[in-house]
Specification:
Length: about 475
């Protein structure tokens, strides 16, 4: 491949900073997203920027189905008659909410560059993706390097579990065509010095657990000790599915065996990096993490089920809490599932365990969210693609690629894998140590973004060369 005139910071930093200022929060966290119009604003801004780039046969549009978040669809014609096949690139532009107070001098919607990192909500998850994809193609065309037909899918509902993506895939199926390779730019990394490939992603089931005991709150002196506490009943119910002393999930339907190949790669990462999971966690001093070693934590993060208590209602703040026995408690629960566990089966097991035989005859209900996140495992790579990945990492970073697993979910990969049975998927990204996706102080390592962009260009070129 010819030398590329490619500099992510030079060409993408300023427009990416503007994107950060747009509060395009995903629908699950902004009930008024349609009226607010921020997702529309982000889609129009990103599309307008892409149209300014020097790409010969670029068609880009904003697709809008009624009641659905917008989707950016991009099609780029092949630059060679012999470079057959279609390559797809995936990203998303919706964002998580700010989530808490950011550090002094930082703000979720005010971009700040500090020590080679761009801070702001959505910078790394996943605002950089369209910029990286477009710049990679532009650099190849400027260098005269041939590429095949390329489509880009940049969606607006990923942080809500991608509920809107399947309808768009149905509507756009003829324009998308048959895909041979997908590059997903929404995954993570264990370090910033190489291209990291994702071998698996956990699934996700989120649900709302409600426990009701009274029509309205009552004086605790009157009801306390007579009316069972809704919070205590909730604790009782959660003990059915999680060991409160160890955090171990007790439902067999939520467990799976770690494949031998994944185990071997975990050992390689632990031998080189020690405890990358533990080192990346902002734990308080003295906190003992689960797992006896870095290897244990790599496996736990990627292949063991886990429960997170992500929200609660029915409980007043301390400042206004009176002596009242509350009428109800409602909690949002998020279950991370091993990659091979069926999310539908897991959801059913969770509902049955929580709703069966309600303690004290309390009103207990479980509502499973509309979008289930099925886990994903990367299938074995064809030899040409394994070689291309190695060359891509050398091109972007000057060192070999490595494999890791993600504890999070990208529902789209399972959806696309089911739709295109022969599709090869390369999942990578910039979410390395300290990137803080979904948390305060989210940041994009600009050198990493540049390296990943160069790696994407290399993969695009090798895909075309394979076809030729």
């Amino acid at each position: 491949m010819a030398e590329l005139d490619l500099d992510f910071t030079r060409d993408a930093l300023a427009p990416l900073e503007h994107y950060i200022t747009i509060p395009c929060i995903s629908p699950d966290y902004d009930a008024n997203w349609e009226q607010d119009g921020h997702l529309d604003s982000a889609a129009h801004y990103l599309t307008s920027w892409a149209k300014t780039r020097a790409i010969a046969d670029l068609t880009i549009s904003i697709e809008q189905l009624p009641g659905r978040t917008p989707l950016i669809f991009c099609e780029i014609g092949a630059t060679s008659d012999t470079a057959t096949g279609t390559l797809a690139i995936y990203g998303h532009f919706d964002k998580q909410p700010p989530l808490g107070n950011w550090s002094e001098g930082l703000d979720p919607f005010t971009p700040v560059v500090r020590d080679g990192k761009l801070y702001g909500r959505g910078a790394a998850d996943d605002g950089y993706s369209l910029f990286a994809a477009i710049l990679a193609v532009e650099a190849l065309e400027k260098a005269g390097t041939k590429h095949s037909r390329i489509v880009m899918l940049i969606e607006g509902s990923e942080e809500s579990g991608s509920p809107d993506l399947e309808p768009y895939m149905d509507v756009l199926s003829e324009r998308i065509g048959d895909l041979e390779l997908l590059i997903c730019l929404d995954s993570g990394a264990q370090s910033y010095d190489r291209l990291w490939l994702t071998q698996s992603l956990r699934g996700n089931v989120t649900c709302t657990l409600h426990v009701g005991v009274l029509e309205h709150g009552m004086h605790s002196g009157e009801a306390g000790g007579v009316v069972p506490s809704s919070f205590r009943i909730m604790r009782h119910l959660l003990d059915r599915i999680e060991d409160s002393s160890t955090g171990e999930i007790l439902l067999d339907a939520l467990h799976a065996q770690v494949p031998a190949e994944h185990q071997a790669r975990f050992v390689e990462v632990a031998d080189e990096l020690g405890d990358p999971v533990g080192e990346a966690i902002a734990s308080l001093e003295g906190l003992e993490l689960h797992g006896q070693s870095g290897l244990d934590r790599l496996i736990t993060q990627a292949w063991k089920p886990a429960l997170a208590f992500t929200g609660i209602s029915g409980i007043p703040s301390i400042e206004i809490a009176g002596n009242v026995l509350r009428a109800s408690t409602t909690a949002k629960l998020s279950f991370r599932l091993p990659p091979s566990v069926n999310a539908q089966v897991a959801a059913q097991a969770i509902v049955e365990a929580l709703e069966a035989d309600p303690p004290h005859g309390a009103l207990v209900s479980v509502k499973v969210d509309r979008a289930l996140g099925q886990g994903w495992e990367c299938k074995a790579l064809d030899p040409w693609l394994a070689t291309a990945i190695e060359e891509a990492s050398l091109s972007g970073f000057g060192r070999s690629a490595s494999w890791t697993s993600e504890g999070g979910s990208i529902p789209f990969l399972a959806q696309l894998g089911a739709r295109f049975s022969d599709l090869a998927i390369v999942a990578t990204g910039v979410l390395g140590p300290g990137a803080n996706a979904h948390g305060p102080d989210e940041s994009l390592d600009l050198a990493m973004a540049n390296g990943v962009t160069r790696a994407v260009a290399s993969l695009i070129a090798d895909f075309a060369a394979k076809a030729q």
